[in-house]
Structure formats: C-alpha cells, structure tokens
Write a structure and sequence with these properties.
This protein has 332 residues and is an alpha/beta fold. It is built from twelve helices and ten strands. The chain is globular and about 65 Å long. The structure holds 5'-O-[(R)-(carboxyoxy)(hydroxy)phosphoryl]adenosine and zinc ion (ZN).
C-alpha cells in the first residue's frame, strides 16, 4: 500500500506544504517565499517571519489538498521539520502539524530539515544506492555526510562559521543586491566566467572536511575598500569570489569520496540551484568517474516535498513521534 503524507516546512522564511504518495510521487508541493516581506529590513526578521507563517499556513494546506484532489481524511501521516531554524517559525509548523495529527488521529513524523535536503534527490532517483557522500549546501548550513544507509551516517565536515550560502548572500548584500544573493552571483559566474582576482580558498589545505567562509567574506570587504577601481568590473569580481566557494566545496566533497572510496555523491540545498556549481560538479564527476545525483532547482531550495520524502522513509520503518515532539533552533 502506498501511504499518503502531508508535510510542513516552516523552518526559516518559506512556508511550504507538500503531499506525497509513497516515497516519490509528489501530489502537491506549494511554497510561499517571504523574501519580499523582509527586503526593507535587509534580512529576515524572526518575529515577522513567524507571523507570516501563521497567516498563510492554513490556506496553503487547503491549496495543497485541492491540488492533490484529496481530503484530510485520506492522509496517513503528518510530517514536519522540527529543527534547525528560527524557533518562532518552526513552532508554527510544528503546532499545526500536531493539531492535524491529533484531530485526524494519524501519526506525526518529525524530521531534521538539513537531513531532509538530500531527500530532494531520493524523490527523483529511486536507484540511489549506499554508501553515499552527501554535500548539503543550504543557506544556513554546509555539511558533508558519509551515509551508509538511511538514518545511518556520520557528519564528516561542516561550516565552522558562515555557511557557503550565508557568505554568498552577505557578499551580494555588500554589493547592494537583495536577498537571496545566490542567483545574481551565479549569473555573474556564468556571464563573466573568470578567476581574475584569485580570492582565498579558505581551509582548502587543512586536512579535514570542514568549511570556513567568514574569512572570504572579510577578504571581499577589504577588497572593496582597497581596490574601489576594480568594482567597475563587478561581474568579474563576483565571478572570482564564487569560483573560490565552488573550488572549496568541490575539492572537499571529492576528497571525501576519494578517501572513503565511495563512488556516489549527492548534492542538495539552495546553493545547489547554481548552474555554475552544477556544471563544475558534473565536470569533476565525469573526470573522476563518480555517479553524481543532483535535484532540479525547485527542489534545491527549501521545500516540503523533501521533508515529506524523508518522513516517508521514517514512517515506513515505524520511526514516528508523539505530540511531545520538541522544537530546536540548532542542529545538534
Ligand atoms: O536551502 P535553502 O533554500 O535554505 C536553507 O535551508 O537555508 O538555501 C538558500 C540559499 C541562499 O544562500 C540562496 O542565495 C541560495 O540558496 N540560492 C542560490 C540560488 N537559489 C538560491 N544560489 C545560487 N544560485 C541559485 N539559483
Ligand atoms: Zn534548507
């Protein structure tokens, strides 16, 4: 029997609802992005994000059910990401999820939002096998996992300060671009594909899989102050900056695959929507004979389909929660 799950993601500034049949048939996946709501403040305002989630979550659930041509009574479980993210935002999703699970008398499945990102690939590729190296490049987290199976993995490395996405967004903001900065920086990397300025490749030579991008952000700030004339070539500057990020992500991920003797890499998270990143990973994978898994752009950025997919795997194994499910801001 193919179970039907409704999943909710409100961890940051997107409200997303999905309905999934089995582990891969997306019946609905609707996301309302709040970027415009926060633009005038230059970043996400937690209190405002939380209020916006509250305003739109119920109409979005109605929309998703309408798209899927289903009623509440046909749902088998409710999925929700309960960490990490903004507490006030997660609370809205988790409270609605608990109310639905209780009133419909169906199981509740809590999931880790970061762990859910690679499931954008599991939605698409039924033949993905283990072991696997997952690179997650989301806005707030950059992580490399060594996954032996579902729910059986080690974190090999992570961002020790700014995540790659965070660094890209902050540098784009420095250049006067609104959130999210990733798409404009990616555009520069494609239209002006150069590494003219050779910015630092942070921790490239350290013998671990961690990332540290705050030094690169500072280098960009200093570069702006010290070489204002170079800013006439903004596309080249941003392109060179992004090349540093891509080089570090690529080097550490393929090093992990090589050292662990693993021939499969899955990339996911918002920054994976970058065409430049994708091209670079595809070239390296071809060269090193690695099987690369990559989601389409709409499944790279935050969405509830990936959350529901991870929940479907958990539900199948009886890994369900009760109404005591907690909410946590941090990953650990
Ligand atoms: O995974 P995500 O939607 O949110 C978190 O879980 O944090 O990732 C958001 C990040 C932001 O840094 C944003 O600038 C970046 O993904 N991003 C992109 C693109 N679309 C979103 N970066 C490069 N190219 C894109 N097309
Ligand atoms: Zn995310």
């Amino acid at each position: 029997m193919e179970y039907i799950g409704l999943g909710i993601d409100t961890t940051f500034d997107d409200t997303s609802i999905a309905i999934l049949r089995g582990k891969s048939e997306i019946l609905a996946n609707v996301t309302l992005s709040q970027y415009k709501e926060h633009e005038e403040f230059g970043g996400v305002v937690p209190e405002r994000a939380s209020r916006k989630h509250m305003e739109v979550i119920n109409p979005l659930i109605e929309d998703a059910l309408k798209q899927a041509k289903l009623t509440f009574q046909e749902l088998d479980y409710i999925a929700v990401s309960n960490y990490p993210g903004l507490l006030g935002s997660i609370l809205i999703g988790v409270t609605v999820a608990k109310s639905l699970a209780y009133s419909l008398q169906i199981p509740l499945v809590g999931v880790n939002h970061v762990e859910a990102h690679p499931y954008a690939n599991f939605l698409l590729y039924n033949n993905m096998d283990f072991p696997m190296i997952h690179l997650v490049v989301a806005g707030g987290h950059t992580l490399i996992f060594h996954a032996r199976d579902h729910f059986d993995y080690d974190i090999l490395g992570r961002s020790v300060d700014d995540a790659a996405g965070e660094c890209v967004d902050k540098v784009a903001k420095m250049f006067g671009y609104p959130m999210p900065g990733g798409p404009i920086v990616d555009q520069c990397a494609l239209t002006a594909p150069s590494d003219t300025y050779q910015f630092p490749r942070p921790v490239l030579n350290q013998n671990n899989y961690n990332f540290s991008f705050s030094g690169l952000k500072t280098a960009m700030l200093r570069f702006r102050e010290e070489q204002p004339e170079a800013l006439k070539h903004e596309a080249d500057v941003l392109s060179s900056f992004f090349q540093s990020i891509v080089d570090v992500l690529l080097y550490k991920t393929f090093k992990a695959a090589h050292n662990k003797k693993i021939e499969r890499i899955s990339v996911s998270g918002g920054l994976a929507a970058s065409k430049k990143l994708r091209q670079s990973f595809e070239e390296a994978a071809q060269d090193k004979k690695i099987k690369l898994y990559y989601p389409p752009p709409q499944l790279c950025t935050d969405n509830a389909a990936m959350v529901t997919c991870l929940a479907a795997y958990k539900f199948e194994q009886g890994l369900i929660d009760d109404l005591q499910l907690g909410v946590f801001a941090n990953l650990s």
